[in-house]
Every structure is written in C-alpha cells, then in structure tokens.
C-alpha cells in the first residue's frame, strides 16, 4: 500500500482555502493539539508520510543493532557485555513497537521489511558507518543514542497517537543507552593515554555522521514544511541539530577531549554554539544507498529474514491450527 501511496504523494502545503471541509476539520484538530488515532479520518498524504517516517524509524532500530551487536562477543568485561546485550535487545523492542504502530495505519510489517530489503525504504544514515573498535561502541551509545533522544523527545508530542505513545516508552530506554555509552567513553577518556586517543579518534570519526542524523538543512528538507504543519514533526531538522550540539559540546569538554570540529564556538549573541556543516554530498550519497556499510547491512538483514523463515512458518501454522480448532468448537 505504502509503495503505491508514495507515488501519488503531493508536495507543497495547502492553505485553508484549498482544503476540503474534511481536511480543514483535520487541520483544526491538529492545531488544537488533539491526537489522531488509527480509526480517525486522515489525509492520504498524512498516512503515507507517517508510514514512511515510522517505517524508516523502525528499520533504523533493527539495522542499528548490527554495528553494536558486532561487539557483544568482544566486550572488554562481563559487565560491559551484559550492558551491551541489554541495549542491543532493547533496539529490537523499539523496532517492534514502531512496526506495530505503523501497522495501525494499514501497512503490514512484512511489506515494510520487503521494501527495506529491496532498497526502496531507507534506514538512518548513521548505520552506514562501521564500528571499528570498542571506543566506537561508547561513542555510538553517547552520540548516536544521544542524537536519537533529542529527536525522539520531540516526537513524544507528534500528532499521531500510537507513534507518540511508542516514543514515550522508547525514550525511557534510550536514556539508559546514552548513559551507558557516555560511561564507557568516560572510562576511556580518563584512562591510559592510548585509551584516551581511541576515545578521541571515535569522536572525530562519528561527530559529523551523528549530526547528519537530523537530516538535511531545513532549506533542503523535502518533507519538513508539511510534516510540521501536521505536527508529525514538532521541531525542524536544524532546531534539533542545534539542540544536540549545545548539549554535547560541554560533555566533550568534560571528557577533556578536543572538539571534533574547529568551527565549534560559543556564539554569545545567538546563545548557541556555532558549528560547521557536515559534508552534505556525503550524506546524500549515503542515503542513495552508497554508504560504506550499506551492502553488508542489507545482506545481514536479508539473511536474518531468510534464516528466520522456519520460525515464522511454524508460528503461523500453529496460529492457523489454533484458530481452526476454536472455530470448530
Ligand atoms: N538517514 O525531508 P527530510 C537509533 C531522508 S534509531 C537516512 O528532512 P524527514 C538507534 C528523508 O527520509 C533512530 N535518510 O525528511 C537504533 C528524505 O528522503 P525520502 C532513528 C534520511 O523525514 C539502534 C530526505 O532525506 N530515528 O537511534 O522530514 C541503535 C529528505 O529529508 C535521514 C528516526 O528515524 C537520515 N538521517 O526528516 C542505536 C527518527 N535524514 O524519504 C541507535 C524519526 C533525512 O523522501 N525520523 N533522510 O526518500 C525523523 O524524525 C525524520 O524522518 C528525520 C528526517 C528528522 C530523520
């Protein structure tokens, strides 16, 4: 369904005069901060935009398990292994809440997964980058989950009820993820000179990919204007990115690490940190499917899907048998 809807999705935001009575009533509900629920009437584009964003979000949670899962067997201590295992497991749960929330819009999880596997749906650009060593695992928890929280705290107020409620639960777990990451990187930054150098290298490599997570600058964002009018997004890409930079720079300084961008400077007038733009050509190339790990990430997901077919078949056969028995009684 999504694949067909997206082809017909309009661009540009309608003004009130261009809206039908139903659309105007819908917009009024949004403007009154009412939540939209699955059985309520909604414009087709609202539904398609949500399926796209929630589907991509779900895919990101599941693909996002790969770079960290890769380090579970090599965690430096039993405690770190237990923490990482719990975190990676949480990400599967986040994917599940989000696929389930997307299903309330009439799109099946199987269809969303198929579109991901065919490269027709995206997942977050950040998971195209490799985790080369243990410091990267700390930096991912701190910077990547830190960026995700900034976005997801805002999304708790999104206009679609099931998405907003999924976000409330996800944010609670996400705070633990970011804290465990900061704790891991803190131990390295305050450790031996070699450990500190590894922490610095991880921050240097992951900083720009992390700030790309918020999407292109507002002026280049295709969906922001309409998504903000419908309160699917409550803050713009640039607002969220600035919030992330403002909260993260003091954390880098506390660790005694060098700032990863020479453009970072406190701007007294704006009351915010200035910072350099990431390489947007690299970003657009990554989201076109040319990211350094994209082929591996998709292969791992497709293999996992195929290897798990017997589990799905078994569960379905059991469910069918049970419902036939119930019907016969
Ligand atoms: N990566 O119009 P725009 C996690 C695409 S998981 C890839 O601004 P929008 C974690 C965008 O789709 C957290 N593509 O888009 C998990 C559009 O292309 P299409 C993941 C991106 O949607 C495991 C085009 O660029 N969080 O943290 O209004 C372990 C134009 O962009 C990206 C979410 O998914 C990107 N970064 O705004 C550890 C949050 N950015 O679709 C950690 C939910 C943009 O037209 N999503 N694009 O072909 C959102 O809030 C919004 O979708 C975004 C982008 C702010 C990301």
Write up what this structure looks like:
Its EC number is 1.14.13.149. Residues 14-29 have a biased composition (Basic and acidic residues). There is one protein chain. The protein is mainly α and 329 residues long. 67% of the residues lie in helices and 2% in strands. The chain has 14 helices and 2 strands; from the N terminus they run H-H-H-H-H-H-H-H-H-H-H-E-E-H-H-H. Strands 1-2 form a two-stranded antiparallel ribbon. Strand 1 and strand 2 (272-274) form a beta hairpin. The longest helix is centred in the middle third of the chain and has 29 residues, at 161-189. The structure holds benzoyl coenzyme A. Benzoyl coenzyme A binds next to helix 3, helix 7 and helix 10.
What is the terminal-to-terminal distance? 36 Å
Class from helix and strand fractions: mainly alpha
Provide the succession of SSEs: HHHHHHHHHHHEEHHH
What topology, given as strand order, has the largest sheet? 1-2
Query: pLDDT average, as an integer?
Result: 95
Tally the helices: what do you get?
14
Total strand count, please?
2
pLDDT < 50 runs, ≥5 residues? none
- Biggest sheet layout: 2 strands, antiparallel
Gyration radius over CA: 21 Å
> How much helix, percentage-wise, in residues?
55-70%
Q: Roughly what fraction of the amino acids lie in strands? A: under 5%
Query: Can you list the ligands bound to this structure?
Result: benzoyl coenzyme A
Shape category: globular
Pfam families: PaaA_PaaC
Organism: Aliiroseovarius salicola
Protein name: 1,2-phenylacetyl-CoA epoxidase subunit A
Keywords: Oxidoreductase
